[in-house]
Design brief:
Blueprint lengths: L1 H10 L6 H13 L9 H14 L3 E5 L5 H8 L7 E6 L2 H13 L6 E5 L2 H7 L4 E6 L6 H10 L3 E10 L21 H20 L3 E6 L5 E6 L1 H6 L15
Parallel strand pairs: 1-2, 1-4, 2-3, 4-5
Antiparallel strand pairs: 5-7, 6-7
Helix pairs in contact: 3-4, 6-7
Length: 244
């Protein structure tokens, strides 16, 4: 039923661009774990969100093959947003660079190679959209680091993907069709994401909402009172591309 609903929604939503469709198809044909990539409907959702918010800086934690970075790129032509994305896996770094080179995205997309925690530590300024889609056991640490460094703009939004961990966050019995060979991986992720979801609910600095979309999406923003107390000001100061 879920696949039928997704197909219906996809057909009745804005379509992704031919370039995005090409990257999505190439990824599916080239990588056994292509299911980690955002779906076409999710890519259309990202574009819709960015076109509405008009961000000037976007940060991605986890790049995979560059599909989501392309969504951010295409949806921010009017603002010429700076897009910084991170990736650790050499195979996915090569795939992402292929995407950025082939579709000429390098004028506004910067890929930082290495562990996400180290990459985040290099960053300065504020980001209007932050998309977290990396190793699931790192989500809590990454968001804490982002908040601690005040990388999230006053009216910015953090979007964390896959917080259901194929259903394993909710219950290890939630998805009987999950293949046995990947079940231990997602069960472990589910345990980490339960801790992350508790952190999001309890941290006094932020408002969060967990939505039953895709494989679970958590949206995070500053509490207005905390933003004021911290002296976080509007604007996008510190537009500095990370080139090392």
């Amino acid at each position: 039923m879920a696949a039928t609903v997704t197909d219906y929604c996809t057909k009745h939503s804005n379509a992704i661009s031919p370039n995005m469709q090409e990257v999505w198809g190439w990824t599916c044909a080239s990588f056994d774990d292509a299911d980690k990539m955002s779906s076409p409907l999710q890519g259309a959702t990202m574009k819709f969100l960015a076109e509405w918010q008009q961000p000037k800086r976007i940060l991605e934690i986890g790049c995979f093959t560059g599909f989501s970075a392309m969504a951010w790129y295409e949806s921010t032509v009017s603002t010429q947003a700076e897009i910084i994305t991170t990736e650790l896996d050499p195979k996915m770094i090569a795939a992402s660079r292929r995407t950025f080179d082939k579709y000429q995205l390098n004028d506004r997309v910067t890929l930082i190679e290495g562990p996400a925690q180290e990459s985040i530590e290099k960053l300065t300024g504020e980001f209007d959209i932050i998309f977290v889609d990396a190793n699931k056991d790192g989500y809590e640490g990454y968001v804490k680091q982002i908040l601690g460094k005040r990388l999230l703009a006053p009216r910015g939004l953090i979007m964390c993907d896959n917080v259901f961990a194929r259903g394993m966050t909710v219950s290890t019995e939630a998805n009987p069709e999950l293949p046995a060979k990947v079940r231990p991986y997602w069960v472990e992720n589910g345990e980490a994401l339960r801790r992350f979801n508790t952190f999001c609910k309890d941290d006094p600095r932020i408002d969060s909402i967990l939505l039953p979309l895709y494989d679970g999406i958590t949206l995070i923003k500053w509490k207005r009172s905390v933003a004021a107390q911290n002296g976080i000001k509007g604007g996008n100061n510190g537009f500095q591309k990370v080139l090392d």
